[in-house]
Amino acid sequence: MKIIQVTDVHLGRRGEIRYGADLHERLGRCIDHINARHGDATLCIFTGDLADGGDTQAYVDLKAALDRLSVPYRLLPGNHDRRANLIAAFPENGTDGNGFVQSVFDTPEGRLVFLDSLAEGRVSGELCDNRLGWLDAMLTEAASKTAYIFLHHPPVELGLTLLDPLGLEQPQRLIDVLTRHGNVGYIFFGHVHRDIAGTVAGIPFSAQRGLHARFMLDLVGDEMVEQAPPAYSLILIDGARVVIHSCDFLEQWPLWSPATGQRVR
Ligand SMILES: [Fe+2]
Is 2-247 assigned to CATH 2.40.50.140? Predict the structure, then answer.
């Protein structure tokens, strides 16, 4: 099974240039790339910070852009999003019965679980009793099937001094639920605008740098954002195998032919 993770779209006003980049244009190029190379993907998951200011127009623009995406998609909120505006623009995206943007997507390879870690008004994330209770039920229902967790905020300290306090609050509450069920195969998140991989309580995780500017590894003072190439993740899940490729979709390197030794681009 092929799925795709796109994160931290940060769509703002049309024509706005932020840190030297037009995020509308960048999203369009990302969609073009996915359509051209991975139109056979089962699902494309956007792991939050869809709209930079959370305003209604940004979701209208996002919807117009995603109408061109040839792959089915699911959206998660991040700290920059506004839940009500997101739900209003994408009513078919799914909620959990308590008004949170949480849903599942069952596949032959297992159950994809989408969590809503948005704490309106705060940069850090939360999973309240309602949201964790829903997750508990979804993992119980998955039974022996492997579950793959998607959320915006990191549920683990990453060794990033300035960003770690802005991750998921009380992450151990989530980890306790996941380890109790023992059927979680992977955790995917965004928020930190960097490519990071590791394990927590034996569960592998990764973050994707996403479409917005990258946070520097050494965050010092005001010099904390670098305009690195944007990327999305191509995720292959097959049996016990999970493989993640980072696609730097704007990169254009010189091409050489191994057969002739000649440069072809
Ligand atoms: Fe972000």
Answer: no
